[in-house]
């Protein structure tokens, strides 16, 4: 069972991002403050949850959270400041917009750029250990998936409706065949050389 919080003295928000490894589109991040006693049997790291369950969980989290926010940083800024900094910036934006202010942050992963003067703790695989981080991972993932699904309408050949911008073989093959879109991250390796030779 997921733990509700890392510490109990300060109002705590869990933070996570989605889309860091994608070749196209923004990186999304969420910050979530959960009430004591929050529980949903399906809540887990978003990668361990089915798509249908993620959307069920999103509705439940948004209904029951004390406060939550989702923010994004677009592909152009990712190219400008790099994906790690863009991920931290998206988290900062989400934290900043929380209606209930967090006094302590728990972050999924092993690195984070301090936000203002709020103390934080980085937790490797935190999204499978703490409920607030898992909830943040669900929100970030579903909001990003929605964004990529909408883009798919304009760029169906890249199959973003299924790969969501990740570097799948079909996505990389489409880049070789059709070139890049305005939403691709130019600072990323978008094709692998072997694929280009095979074509």
TrEMBL record:
CDD domains assigned to the protein according to its UniProt record, in alphabetical order:
RNase_HII_bacteria_HII_like
User: Which amino acid positions bind a divalent metal cation, per UniProt?
Assistant: 16-17, 108
Instruction: Give a yes or no for keyword Metal-binding in this entry.
Output: yes
Q: Which InterPro entries match?
A: RNase_HII, RNase_HII/HIII, RNase_HII/HIII_dom, RNaseH-like_sf, RNaseH_sf
Q: Name one GO biological process term.
A: DNA replication, removal of RNA primer
Q: Which cofactors must be present for this protein to function?
A: Mn(2+); Mg(2+)
Q: Which SUPFAM superfamilies match?
A: Ribonuclease H-like
Limits of the RNase H type-2 domain: 10-199
User: What does the entry list under GO cellular component?
Assistant: cytoplasm; ribonuclease H2 complex
Q: Which UniProt keywords apply?
A: Cytoplasm, Endonuclease, Hydrolase, Manganese, Metal-binding, Nuclease
Q: Report which superkingdom the organism of origin falls in.
A: Bacteria
Record flagged with keyword Glycosyltransferase: no
GO terms (molecular function) for this protein are:
manganese ion binding; RNA binding; RNA-DNA hybrid ribonuclease activity
Q: Where in the cell is it found?
A: Cytoplasm
Q: What class of enzyme is it?
A: hydrolase
Question: What PANTHER family does the record point to?
Answer: RIBONUCLEASE H2 SUBUNIT A, RIBONUCLEASE HII
The record's annotation in HAMAP family points to: RNase_HII_B
Its family remark reads: Belongs to the RNase HII family.
Record protein name field: Ribonuclease HII
> Can you name the source organism?
Niastella koreensis (strain DSM 17620 / KACC 11465 / NBRC 106392 / GR20-10)
Taxonomic lineage from the root = Bacteria, Pseudomonadati, Bacteroidota, Chitinophagia, Chitinophagales
């Amino acid at each position: 069972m997921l733990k509700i919080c890392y510490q109990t003295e300060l109002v705590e928000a869990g933070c996570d991002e989605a889309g860091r490894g994608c070749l196209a589109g923004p990186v999304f991040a969420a910050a979530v403050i959960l009430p004591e006693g929050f529980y949903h049997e399906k809540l887990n790291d978003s990668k361990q949850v089915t798509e249908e369950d993620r959307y069920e969980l999103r509705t439940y989290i948004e209904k029951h959270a004390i406060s939550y926010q989702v923010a994004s940083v677009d592909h152009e800024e990712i190219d400008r400041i790099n994906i790690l900094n863009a991920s931290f910036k998206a988290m900062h934006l989400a934290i900043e917009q929380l209606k209930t202010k967090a006094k302590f942050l728990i972050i999924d992963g092993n690195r984070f750029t301090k936000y203002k003067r709020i103390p934080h703790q980085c937790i490797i695989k935190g999204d499978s250990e703490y409920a607030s981080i898992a909830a943040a991972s669900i929100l970030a993932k579903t909001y990003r998936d929605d964004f990529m699904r909408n883009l798919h309408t304009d760029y169906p050949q890249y199959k973003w409706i299924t790969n969501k911008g990740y570097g799948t073989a079909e996505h990389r093959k489409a880049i070789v065949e059709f070139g890049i879109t305005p939403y691709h991250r130019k600072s990323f390796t978008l094709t692998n050389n072997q694929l280009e030779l095979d074509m």
